[in-house]
Every structure is written in structure tokens, then in C-alpha cells.
């Protein structure tokens, strides 16, 4: 089976001869491969760069607006092509959790407590029963993140969406005191890199997921290989709602020692962790220092996806990364909530996989 990896991706183990002169997190320009999933991560990064040139200050996980002695912190997102699987499985009651999670998880990286959320639901013809299930998930997501659902917008757009399909987007606003903002500026070599486990694929990489499904010939109702004593279908593993980290992260912040936080979304470890680092510093990540859920192992094998591309597309079982003082990290690792010591901050650039 041909590889589905994106252009220039190199195996972390460097068994690929194309990677002979490349570091694990550096593309080899002479070995370009087609992007079969139809999503160009580099193009997205280039757009962010151009937007930042027009509106300096943009580029963080959440946008900060000064408001008295605090900042209002806002984030917006959708669910992406994970919706396609919800349509296929006729399961609509958790996709709203994903919608809320993608925004509140972004703004909590600044140390902000989410205050409210608004949604946008668009469809060709309104099916009230389906819409009710979607909103049920949004309400649950707001409950988990302890923020208010203020309202939203429902739009019927005949002939724009396929029958039975819909799209979702939304935004959240939170606040944080100016002297409590977490922005990564104090990160230093030797700090600990701590990961909080994900519930699965969350809401990124589903264009590649759907390509792998098509190539594998497997069904969403097939049992997921390697699921152990708790049988799980591929579909239910993929549709597992995005974990909302608000309560856990705010609790960790309150204990002290947190210097930077990265939400692991599109771009995976490789693109998201460096976003919170000062220039000249890198994250050294020890591959194997945490438990990778079976769904990622299946995606890698079924799609013949190179390891480097897995780390640039998926969260690989870690949905949030915190950069912390070593002593503070030790206390978190001993706590009741699961967390993993992924590695440490070193001098360098990007993410270095060991």
C-alpha cells in the first residue's frame, strides 16, 4: 500500500533513505511526496504568517483583548470533517462537545477561564431532531467547561449543503488577569514538558483518517484492533469527543509553576509545541514516554503513514502540553489526574524526538 504521508515527511526512526541527511523534525526537500489526504498543513501555516503580517499579535491559541486589569481571551473553531463520520454513523449527540472543546481548550492555554460560548449551525434543510442532538452536545460541552451558552445562529441554506448534512462553528470568550497571563515568555532550558492524555483523535486530521478508512477497506462498525478487553468499533473510537481540559488545566495553573501551554490540534506536536517557546529553545520529546491509544496505532499501520507525519497530523494520545518548572511537574505527575513527563526544554529549535 502506498504511503499517505504528506510531502517531505521523514520517519522518526530515520529508516527511510530519503531522511539520510534530515533530522527527525526537518523535511528532506529531495524526497517530496504527494499529499493524498487533500490537506496542506504548510499552506495553513503560510496563511497564518501572512495574517500575522497584516494584524501583528495574531498567532497564539487565543486572541487577547485588554479590558481593565484583565484580558478577554477569545477562540473560534469548527469540527472539520469529523462531521462526515457523524453523518455516516447517524450519531450527533457528542459532536457539539467537540465544537466547544476546540475553542475553550485554546483559550485556557493563556490561563483564561471560559465565560461564554456561542454556536453557528448551518444546514440545507433543518431537521429539528438532529439539531436538538447537536445542541445537546454543545450544552454538555459548556457544562464541562463551566461556561454559559449564550445563544447562537441557525441557518437553512438550500442547495448549499448535501441533504442530511450540516456544518458547525462557534466561539468562546474567557478572561484572565493581566499579571496571570501564561505566554511562554519565562520558559527556560531544563523546564519539564508534561502531557495530558487525549480521548483519541479529537477533532483534527480527519481528512487523513477518512482516506485511511477508504484505503483499508475497513468499516466504521468493525472492531478496532488492539482495543484489549474493552471491545470498541473503529467508528466509536474515532467519534470519541474531544477532551475538555479547562478544569484540569486551571487546577494545575493554580498550583503554580506553569510557564507555557500548547493545545495539540492540527499540526500535532511538531507545529503546536513550538508556538509557545521563546526563540532559541526547543522541546525534547521522548517517544514512548506515554501510552499511545490503539486508534493511532491502527491509523499508522492501516494507512502506512510515516511516523513523522503522524506527529504532525495527530495528537498521538496527548491533547495538551504544559511547560513547567521541574518541581511543579513532579507534583502534577504524582496527582490523581493522569499526566506524563514527555521530556524537557533544551536549546535549539522546534521539537526534537528521542
Automatic annotation (TrEMBL):
Query: GO cellular component terms?
Result: cytosol
Check the record and name the CDD domains matching this protein. PurM
- What InterPro entries does the record point to? PurM-like_C_dom, PurM-like_C_sf, PurM-like_N, PurM-like_N_sf, PurM_cligase
What keywords were assigned to this record?
Answer: ATP-binding, Ligase, Nucleotide-binding
EC annotation from Swiss-Prot or TrEMBL = 6.3.3.1
Query: Domain named PurM-like N-terminal: which ranges?
Result: 68-176
Q: Which reaction does it catalyse?
A: 2-formamido-N(1)-(5-O-phospho-beta-D-ribosyl)acetamidine + ATP = 5-amino-1-(5-phospho-beta-D-ribosyl)imidazole + ADP + phosphate + H(+)
Q: In which pathway does it act?
A: Purine metabolism; IMP biosynthesis via de novo pathway; 5-amino-1-(5-phospho-D-ribosyl)imidazole from N(2)-formyl-N(1)-(5-phospho-D-ribosyl)glycinamide: step 2/2
Gene Ontology molecular function terms on file: ATP binding; phosphoribosylamine-glycine ligase activity; phosphoribosylformylglycinamidine cyclo-ligase activity
The residues covered by the PurM-like C-terminal domain are 189-351
One Gene Ontology term of the biological-process aspect is: adenine biosynthetic process
**Which SUPFAM superfamilies does UniProt cross-reference here?**
PurM C-terminal domain-like, PurM N-terminal domain-like
Q: Which family does it belong to?
A: Belongs to the AIR synthase family.
User: What's the name of the protein?
Assistant: phosphoribosylformylglycinamidine cyclo-ligase
Give the organism the record lists. Answer: Selaginella moellendorffii
Amino acid at each position: 500500500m502506498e504511503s499517505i504521508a504528506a510531502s517531505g515527511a521523514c520517519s522518526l526512526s530515520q529508516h527511510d533513505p530519503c531522511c539520510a541527511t534530515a533530522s527527525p523534525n526537518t523535511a528532506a526537500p529531495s524526497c517530496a511526496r504527494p499529499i493524498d489526504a487533500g490537506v496542506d498543513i504548510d499552506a495553513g501555516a503560510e496563511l497564518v504568517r501572512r495574517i500575522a503580517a497584516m494584524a501583528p499579535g495574531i498567532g497564539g491559541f487565543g486572541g487577547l483583548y485588554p479590558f481593565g486589569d484583565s484580558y478577554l481571551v477569545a477562540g473560534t473553531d469548527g469540527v472539520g470533517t469529523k462531521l462526515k463520520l457523524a453523518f455516516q454513523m447517524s450519531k450527533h449527540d457528542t459532536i457539539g462537545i467537540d465544537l466547544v472543546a476546540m475553542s475553550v481548550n485554546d483559550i485556557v492555554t493563556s490561563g483564561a477561564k471560559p465565560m461564554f460560548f456561542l454556536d453557528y449551525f448551518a444546514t440545507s434543510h433543518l431537521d429539528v431532531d438532529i439539531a436538538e442532538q447537536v445542541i445537546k452536545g454543545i450544552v454538555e460541552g459548556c457544562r464541562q467547561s463551566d461556561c454559559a451558552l449564550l445563544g447562537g445562529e441557525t441557518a437553512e441554506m438550500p442547495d448549499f449543503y448535501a441533504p442530511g448534512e450540516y456544518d458547525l462553528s462557534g466561539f468562546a470568550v474567557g478572561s484572565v488577569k493581566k499579571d496571570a497571563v501564561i505566554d511562554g515568555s519565562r520558559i527556560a532550558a531544563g523546564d519539564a514538558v508534561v502531557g495530558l492524555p487525549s480521548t483519541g483523535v479529537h477533532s483534527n486530521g480527519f481528512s487523513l483518517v477518512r482516506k485511511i478508512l477508504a484505503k483499508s477497506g475497513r468499516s466504521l462498525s468493525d472492531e478496532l484492533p488492539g482495543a484489549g478487553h474493552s471491545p470498541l468499533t473503529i467508528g466509536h473510537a474515532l467519534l470519541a469527543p474531544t477532551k475538555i481540559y479547562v478544569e484540569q488545566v486551571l487546577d494545575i495553573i493554580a498550583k503554580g509553576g506553569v510557564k507555557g501551554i500548547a493545545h495539540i490540534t492540527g499540526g500535532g506536536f511538531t507545529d503546536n509545541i513550538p508556538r509557545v517557546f521563546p526563540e532559541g529553545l526547543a522541546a525534547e520529546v521522548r517517544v514512548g514516554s506515554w501510552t499511545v491509544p490503539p486508534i493511532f496505532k491502527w491509523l499508522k499501520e492501516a494507512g502506512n503513514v510515516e511516523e513523522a507525519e503522524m506527529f504532525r497530523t495527530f495528537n498521538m494520545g496527548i491533547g495538551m502540553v504544559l511547560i513547567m518548572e521541574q518541581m511543579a511537574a513532579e507534583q502534577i505527575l504524582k496527582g490523581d489526574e493522569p499526566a506524563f513527563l514527555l521530556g524537557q526544554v533544551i536549546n535549539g529549535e522546534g521539537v526534537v524526538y528521542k
